[in-house]
Specification:
Length: 130
């Protein structure tokens, strides 16, 4: 009887340890990436009771990417990633043609995103002139 209880107890302990690990988000579909140092001319953070909003003035190439994504993926979810942090996955309801954007950020994503907004060095790879 003891030989059966030990493996069962070990299995229960192991499964309890894995149950405490948070699920990792799975990103599938279309992704629209922004680098705040490269793509934003200005950004503001508004902390409200139920939401954290990042408002950003977009540089022209970032605004063009957003416009293109809204056209190409109309009616489909697009994962918005800022500074390598996935913040939301809205369904593109219509064509966006703006130079300012407002992103609603979940609190867990905000904990990762907000410190990165202080970065001022643009790390995007620029195309080489031929």
């Amino acid at each position: 009887m003891k030989s059966i209880l030990l493996p069962v107890a070990a299995l229960l302990i192991a499964s309890a340890a894995f149950a405490d690990e948070p699920a990792k988000p799975v990103i599938t579909g279309h992704i629209l990436r922004f680098d705040s140092a490269c793509d934003f001319t200005e950004s503001n953070v508004r902390i409200q009771r139920d939401a954290i909003l990042v408002e950003a003035s977009l540089k022209s190439d970032a605004a063009a990417r957003m416009k293109q994504a809204s056209r190409d993926f109309l009616g489909q979810p697009v994962v918005i990633v800022i500074n390598n942090v996935p913040i939301s996955a809205p369904v593109m309801a219509g064509q966006v043609s703006v130079d300012k954007a407002r992103f609603s950020v979940a609190r867990d994503a905000a904990a990762k995103l907000l410190p990165s907004l202080l970065e001022t060095t643009c790390y995007q790879v620029q195309p080489q002139a031929k």
